[in-house]
Write a structure and sequence with these properties.
Belongs to the eIF-3 subunit B family. With about 725 residues, this protein is an alpha+beta fold. The protein has 7 helices and 43 strands.
Length: about 725
């Protein structure tokens, strides 16, 4: 890379060579062909690659084939029929319909070109009218104009494709073999995106990779941490590696807004929403499902925003995201979406509906997959003014067999929470009182892995307590609930096991009056953070649920997010750019010790890199836990070495500061001696610098500030 030269250096060089820069037109200067003088363009990596087929400029034009061949006198009638059909789909541009005429016969040639205002309208017209039956003899064949050029380039004779030699790529899991067993995280601040190691022993992060303008909106790790996805106007891209982060694949989807990985990282779902030409119409939604490794579109879904806006919250332009929810486990076998009175379940072998039809569920409002098994939990509210009760159903896929159903009465709202192993399902049910003027909350607890899936009802001691937050212990049998009234609600802990009776829920403890509105369990369970975010200004309590005791309390002022690392050793609290001040993040130990703090202006994102599940069996993990002291000796020795190294570094830093101070004092004394004669002159010849040899006198000085005259009347 050539050295960057500042404008001051350029001006100095121009003055030395007697060149008047004001007379030069710098914009007119062109480099010789093929010469870059060592300054590499940011887009250099795009050269030499096959260009993505994004928008070649004719994306809003379709070609309609198999039209009737008519003479000139019937031309206007045929054009009117075609215009009537295609103007219902979108706005055709002025002079945007052209039917070529054979100059010899003066008849149409059986096809036409139609130009719409937008590519989205053209895509919709192709989708809706390809195969449209005008009459028995004329069935439309519709293609995009851009596709015609591709078809023309297909050679007449098949040629054997060139075999490229295999070149092994980088091991995308290499980062998991870090000798210090550290975890990586990604942050976005300003225009920069950085991937860093969390080096807690050194009390600072270590930079792995940094890039400016890496994404145009956000970044996202894949669920197992293999890929980092970025979002651009032309589509999405995934990057991977331990230190280099090379681009592995690009996915063409213009104006993409949201992305979502399948749990096993086999598929990537992309979403875009486009403004309609007619203001009265809803947004046009395009969803693509890509194969992550090949970049091939496996299935696309297109339609109005209304078609994708049923059920759920948290979407864009009224659309619930993610639109498609993936079945549990890592096989990525099924995905589903909610529709009007249906749940549509697709399988990824053919990307078609199971049994070629959706599951009919009248008035279905929400659904969720078990995290580990192909089981759907569905919720449908009451119908007919309460004559037909609300219900929660468990449905096995692909058989669509109903495993369990629970009818619920006087239901105001319902929310489902799966435990991470799929062992339990908690259904939070808000019910109306008899007067219908207020509501109270209870829980329906399903034991999924037990015979006949028994259900237990849990009500709080005070039924009128508002439920602020609920969270299962990962891989465990306990759950926590924040309930009561702000600003100091209570936090209760429950277990699905009761002493020797493993089939009954029991309360473990309630801690009263906590400034908390969110719960964050450690990924390994046992420890939990009771967080007071937003209105509570970042109050944090680190709690040990095994011992039912507080380990530490702290505050991260204005904290907006809390994120545990995948191992449960460290936790990060951050203040993102929703606040103008205090942007940055704090790294804490699991027991509440602040390890280091990083401040970043315009801080947007912090994401830990996920880890894939351990290959160790539960028995092996249990054995390691029992013999932890034996295994930990090695790491304790390493920690001691690091501690000694840090102590040595601290000593060197203190010595450096002391030496710097002594140099400053020595320099001050030298200057003091040089200015001695000048000080003597200012003191009228007095030579001494000692203050005690002088007598201080107070002198009073009177000063007239203002004089005014005023005439006073004696009347």
């Amino acid at each position: 890379m050539a050295e960057v030269v500042s404008m001051d250096e350029i001006r100095a060089t121009a003055a030395r060579l007697d060149i008047d820069l004001s007379s030069l037109d710098l914009d007119s200067i062109r480099l010789p062909p093929g010469e870059d003088f060592g300054v590499i363009s940011d887009d250099e990596d795009l050269k030499g690659e096959d260009p993505l087929e994004f928008d070649a400029g004719f994306g809003n034009i379709i070609v309609v084939d198999n039209l009737p061949v008519v003479p000139k006198e019937k031309f206007d009638k045929l054009e009117g029929v075609i215009r009537k059909i295609y103007s219902q789909i979108g706005v055709i541009k002025e002079d945007g319909l052209w039917m070529p005429v054979d100059p010899e016969t003066q008849k149409t040639q059986g096809y036409c070109f139609i130009e719409y205002n937008t590519p989205q309208e053209a895509e919709l017209a192709k989708e809706k009218t390809n195969g449209y039956k005008l009459d028995r003899s004329h069935i439309f064949a519709v293609n995009m104009f851009d596709d015609i050029e591709k078809f023309m380039k297909v050679p007449d004779e098949w040629a054997t494709p060139e075999t490229k030699p295999y070149t092994p790529g980088e091991n995308l899991q290499k980062w998991l073999t870090d000798e210090k067993a550290r975890d990586q995280f990604v942050i976005r601040a300003g225009t920069d995106t950085e991937v860093l190691w969390n080096d807690a022993r050194q009390s600072k992060p270590e930079l792995v990779y940094k890039r400016s303008y890496w994404t145009e909106s956000f970044v996202q790790w894949s669920p197992l941490g293999t890929y980092l996805a970025t979002v651009h106007r032309q589509g999405a891209a995934v990057w991977g590696g331990a230190t280099t982060f090379n681009r592995l694949m690009r996915y063409a989807h213009p104006q993409v807004k949201l992305i979502d990985f399948s749990p096993g990282e086999k598929f990537l779902v992309t979403y875009s929403s486009h403004e309609p030409s007619n203001p009265r119409d809803t947004h046009r939604v395009v969803i693509n499902i890509f194969d992550v490794r090949t970049g091939k579109v496996m299935r696309d879904f297109k339609g109005s925003a209304d078609e994708f806006a049923i059920g759920g919250t948290g979407g864009v332009s009224g659309v619930s995201w993610p639109v498609f929810r993936w079945s549990g486990g890592r096989d990525d076998k099924y995905f589903a979406r909610i529709g009007k009175n249906v749940i549509s379940v697709y399988e990824t072998e053919t990307f078609t509906l199971i049994d070629k039809k959706s599951i009919k569920v009248e008035n279905v409002m929400d659904f969720s997959w078990s995290p580990t098994d192909p089981i759907l939990a569905l919720f449908a509210p009451e119908l007919g003014g309460g004559n037909q009760p609300a219900r929660v159903s468990l449905v096995q896929i692909p058989s669509k067999e109903e495993l369990r159903q629970k009818n619920l009465f006087s239901v105001s709202d319902c929310k489902m929470y799966w435990q991470s192993n799929g062992d339990y399902l908690a259904v939070k049910v808000d019910r109306y009182t008899k007067t219908k003027k207020s509501t109270y909350t209870g829980f329906e607890l399903f034991r999924i892995k037990e015979r006949d899936i028994p259900i237990e009802v849990l009500e709080l001691e005070n039924k009128n307590d508002k439920i602020i937050s609920f969270a299962w212990e990962p891989k465990g049998h306990r759950f926590a609930v924040i309930h009561g009234d702000s600003p100091r609600p209570d936090v209760s802990f429950y277990s699905m096991r009761s002493g020797t009776n493993t089939g009954r829920v029991s309360k473990l403890s309630t801690i009263r009056g906590k400034q908390a509105n969110a719960l964050y369990w450690s990924p390994g369970g046992r420890f939990i953070i009771l967080a007071g975010l937003k209105g509570f200004n970042g109050q944090l309590e680190f709690y040990n649920v095994d011992e039912l005791e507080t380990m530490a309390t702290a505050e991260h002022f204005m904290a907006t997010d809390v994120e545990w690392d995948p191992t449960g050793r460290y936790v990060v609290t951050s203040v993102t750019s929703v606040h103008e001040m205090e942007n940055g993040f704090n790294v804490w130990s699991f027991n509440g010790k602040l390890l280091y703090r990083i401040m970043k202006d315009h801080f947007f994102q912090f994401l830990w890199r996920p880890r894939p599940p351990s290959f160790l069996s539960p028995e092996k993990e249990e054995e390691i836990a029992k013999n932890l002291k034996k295994y930990s000796k090695k790491y304790e020795a390493e920690d001691q070495d690091v501690s000694l190294q840090l102590s040595e570094q601290d000593r060197e830093k203190r010595k450096m500061l002391k030496d710097e101070w002594e140099r400053w004092v020595s320099e001050w004394k030298r200057l003091h001696e040089e200015q001695k004669l000048e000080r003597q002159m200012l003191r009228d010849g007095e030579a001494s610098d000692e203050e005690e040899e002088y007598e201080a006198k107070e002198v009073e000085v009177e000063e007239l500030l203002d004089v005014s005259e005023e005439v006073i009347s004696f009347d």
